[in-house]
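Hi there,

I know you've been waiting on this one. I reran it after we fixed the sequence typo, so this is the corrected version. Both the input and the resulting structure follow.
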Amino acid sequence: MEHENDIDQDLAEESEVDEKKKVKEKRHDAGAADLEKVTDYAEETEISASDISGVMGIIGQEVAGRMAKETELLKVQVRREDVQLLVQELEINQEKAERALREHGGNLMDTLVALTN
């Protein structure tokens, strides 16, 4: 009977050791997974020379588009009275009033509707 108790105790100790090994393996796996996430993020955020030239091309296109739009807006004629009316009634500065009028083709009614909505 004493021999059976020793066997039971040995089995219990072995299962306890196995459980501790499993816990350690889980911790190791979790750490490895975290490290993998960090290295994946670092790889994704690295910028190559080709990426930079592509981005610069896009930025150049955006700047050219903005300049073309500004040039078109400057061609639109606005009346000084309309600008003053917007400044007085809507309490906005003169530059904003003039730009809004230009964006709406100099049409006072369209500008008023857009600014009040």
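Quick highlight: The chain has two domains: 1-46, 77-117.

Best,
R. S.
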